[in-house]
Specification:
With 158 residues, the protein is mainly alpha-helical. It has helices at 10-20, 27-43, 50-63, 69-84, 90-100, 114-127, 139-155.
Length: 158
């Protein structure tokens, strides 16, 4: 499997997750959720068009906590594909799951997709009916990224 210079292998991501969470014996739980989200994406969400995803998102917002995390993450993966034309990297998915679990994020290097990771995590929380605020130290980057992520949130009816 070929990887871009910015993309780490699954083994490298898992190693980093263990290093950043040395006292947490449940790293495998995070990894299992990432794999489950990837499987749900491939089996179900990858074929959704914009209308189907929007309909799913509307139902999910009404149900809030009823949908399994892996399904909600898979839906955000589909929104990334529709909005940006690529499937989220493993690093991004681990960051979303770790964030949902209250763990530390992976160190996400330049070019690995911090903006998409944060947008996905915010969307998962918003689809659960939670209020979400995203803070940044750069007003310029915040404006740029808000515009760039707007289609992503629109696909999810957020």
């Amino acid at each position: 499997m070929s990887h871009s210079p910015c993309e780490r292998t699954d083994a490298e991501v898992l190693k980093d997750l263990r290093i950043l969470n040395p006292t947490c014996g449940r790293v495998e739980d995070v990894w299992a959720k990432v794999q489950r989200a990837q499987a749900v994406f491939k089996q179900k969400m990858a074929s959704y068009d914009a209308q189907q995803l929007g309909e799913w998102a509307t139902k999910a917002q009404k149900a809030q906590e009823e949908e399994e995390d892996s399904v909600v993450i898979a839906a955000t993966m589909r929104a990334v594909v529709l909005a940006h034309g690529f499937t989220p990297r493993t690093t991004q998915l681990v960051s979303v799951v770790a964030g949902l679990e209250g763990r530390r994020f992976l160190e996400i290097k330049t070019g690995e997709g911090k903006t998409v990771s944060i947008a996905m995590l915010a969307a998962v929380h918003a689809l659960r009916g939670r209020k979400v605020d995203v803070a940044s130290s750069s007003q310029e980057l915040s404006k740029r990224d808000a515009c760039k992520q707007s289609p992503f949130f629109e696909y999810l009816k957020l």
